[in-house]
Amino acid sequence: MFGMKYCVVVAEKMHKKEKLGVLNWSDEWDKPCLIKQVQMRIDTGWIPIGGVSYGEHEAFSEKVWAQSMSKEEDSEEE
Predict the structure, then answer these.
(1) Which of 5, 23, 35, 46 has the smallest CB count inside 10 Å?
(2) 33, 13 in Cβ contact below 8 A?
(3) Quick one: CA torsion of 37, 38, 39, 41, rounded to 10 degrees?
(4) Sign of the alpha-carbon dihedral angle for 51, 47, 9, 49
(5) Where do runs of H (alpha helix) occur along 1-78?
C-alpha cells in the first residue's frame, strides 16, 4: 500500500541565499533559496506540484515564495 506525503517549501528569496545570523555569533549562515530547497527535495524523491506562488505567510514579515511538493511513500499494511 502506498501513502503520500505533502509539504510546502517556503523562502523569502527565489534565487539568492538568505543571510541568517545568531546573536553573539560573528559568522552568518546562509539559508538556501527556494530553488535550492526544491532541488534538495527533488534529489530525495519529492515531486513539485503545480507552479511557484508568491504571497504572505504567517511565519514571515515579508512576502515569500512557496512551492507545493509531494512524495509517494510505502506503508506496510498489517
Answers:
(1) 23
(2) yes
(3) 90
(4) positive
(5) 34-43
Confidence of residue 77 (pLDDT cuts 50, 70, 90): low
- pLDDT tens column, 11-63: 988 887 666 555 555 455 567 899 999 999 999 999 999 999 999 988 888 89
d(CA 73, CA 26): 41
Q: What is the pLDDT of residue 67?
A: 96
pLDDT at 30: 66
Q: Which of 45, 44, 15 is closest to 30 using CA atoms?
A: 15
Cα dist. 66→14, 23, 53, 57 in Å?
9, 28, 5, 9
The C-alpha cell at 31 is 539559508
- CB count, 10 Å around CB of 76? 5
